[in-house]
Every structure is written in structure tokens, then in C-alpha cells.
Amino acid sequence: MSPEVAPALRRGWRLQWEPAQQRHVLLYPEGMVQLNESAGAILTLVDGRRHEADIVAALEAQFPGTAEIADDVAAFLAEAGRQGWLEASP
């Protein structure tokens, strides 16, 4: 994903909190991806309106003093895009 694009979850995919697993999961027609805490925090902000910088700013406000948030978000969004989890917002 490019920083200039507002990422959105791929059509047909859904982020959901799973109480039994105490984690976010990404549901898609063929299955499910269990997410770690960082991935879940990032994907809760992926809505097709926020750009990468907006997501970073929201996470920096939520987790003040955490180092390298911008790098982590960029790396995660790039990998999620390569995995086909995200698409550019229409």
C-alpha cells in the first residue's frame, strides 16, 4: 500500500474481536487469520478514509511514547497489501 492511498479491507473481508481467543481476527470467505495485538490495533483504524499518516497519528495518541510506530505501520500495511488483505479505497 502506498502512503498516499487510504487502505480498506478487501471486499468480503471483515475484522472482528473474538472474545474466546482474546484477539482480533480477520475473517474472509475461505477462513480466518488470527492477528496479534499490533496488527489488530492497526486494522481497527483501516476504514478506507484514513491514510497511513492518519493511522500513525491515531496510534501515537493511543500509545504515547511507543517508538517506531510509523515504521511498524508502514511495514504492516505493505505486508497486508502483499497478502491481499487490503485494497485501495474507491
UniProtKB/TrEMBL annotation:
Pathway: Cofactor biosynthesis; pyrroloquinoline quinone biosynthesis. It comes from the Bacteria. Keywords: PQQ biosynthesis. Gene3D superfamilies: Coenzyme PQQ synthesis protein D (PqqD). Belongs to the PqqD family. Monomer. Interacts with PqqE. Functions as a PqqA binding protein and presents PqqA to PqqE, in the pyrroloquinoline quinone (PQQ) biosynthetic pathway. This is PqqA binding protein. It comes from Billgrantia aerodenitrificans.
